[in-house]
Amino acid sequence: MHIITPLCLIVSLFFMASAHAEQNLLQESFDITHKTQKMGQDSQQVVDKLAKQQQELLQQYQRLLRKTEYQKEYNQELLLLKEEQATSIVTLQQKIEDVKLTKQQLLPLLREMTKTLEQFIQLDLPFHKENRLMGINDLKKLLSRSSVTITEKFRRVMAFYQAENDYNYDLEAYRDNIILNSESRSEQILRVGRNALYMQTLDGQLSALWNKNTQDWQILNNNFNRPIQKAIRITEQKAAPSLLTLPYLTSLDHSSNELNKGE
Fold this sequence. Notes:
The chain is built from five helices and five strands; from the N terminus they run H-H-H-E-E-E-E-E-H-H. The chain has helices at 4-123, 129-144, 150-166, 225-235, 252-261, and strands at 171-180, 183-192, 196-200, 207-211, 216-219. The chain has a five-stranded antiparallel beta sheet with strand order 1-2-3-4-5, covered by helices on one side.
């Protein structure tokens, strides 16, 4: 009995040591497994994080790529715009030079136009002649004033030309002082555009037609008194419009005979 007990104790100790070693080994294996799983989880997190960063970088790259394409197109548009602006600048510079040249040439042209208009009025029918020549003098003074812009000078000359042009198409009856037979007298005047200018005394007993060839009034046959008087009343809107037969000077010899014969 005393011999078996130590042996059993030794065996028990052996088994206990062996069990303890297995338990340590098992614990070590468990620790390793747990550590491996932990490392795997950490690695997976790292992989997921890297994958996420990769996806973000890819999206950022795609955005930059699209932005780069847009930038290229925008730069191309800027280049086209720059070329157009350069062309426009050249055109504008040329126009500025043309305007400078036009301004230099315009004032002499306006002076020449005014001079021509003055000569025209001198040779024209003598209606409102004094006032029209006064207008020419005012125009000359205006062209000499440096404080007036070239634009305003051009406008005034064109307005004067337009006013003279309007005389071609209207009728006018007014009272004016004329020289007839070397005598100054105030009589009725009838203007038919620029075609004819008539005079009639206030009592309607004497009528005359302005003769451009002689630059004087030509007395008309008394038969024209009534048509001219009616024409004056129509022009003054005192009578209804109607067809009238008025003398008209077409040539010196022929017209003189016709004017003397009357209707």
